[in-house]
Design a protein that fits this description.
This protein has 90 residues and is an alpha+beta fold. It has a single domain, classed as OB fold (Dihydrolipoamide Acetyltransferase, E2P) (Beta Barrel). The chain contains 1 helix and 5 strands. It comes from Halalkalicoccus tibetensis.
Length: 90
């Protein structure tokens, strides 16, 4: 993985390990497993982070609260649309 700053989403936390999916141009390109204690405060599953890599090591994690909220809202909107009965008015 090249040095740089990437967008990452905390996909899941299992047994104290946070699985983060790294993205480039909207596509998942890598996965990083971090000790959940390394995450910034109040970060959990679904949180979007900016993750900086140097020499294949994580050197910075910064939560992107705005993007996290936008993604939650889009997911909720999709769920709401899919849960409507076909005969319901839009």
């Amino acid at each position: 993985m090249s040095d740089g700053t990437y967008t990452a989403t905390v996909d899941r936390i299992e047994e104290g390990i946070a699985v983060c999916l790294l993205e480039s141009e909207g596509e998942v390109i890598d996965e990083r497993r971090l000790d959940a204690g390394e995450l910034p405060d109040d970060c959990g599953e679904g949180t979007v982070l900016e993750i900086e890599l140097r020499n294949d090591e994580v050197v910075a994690l910064t939560p992107d609260r705005g993007e996290s909220e936008r993604r939650r809202e889009r997911a909720q909107s999709r769920f709401d649309r899919l849960s409507r009965r076909p005969d319901e008015e839009r």
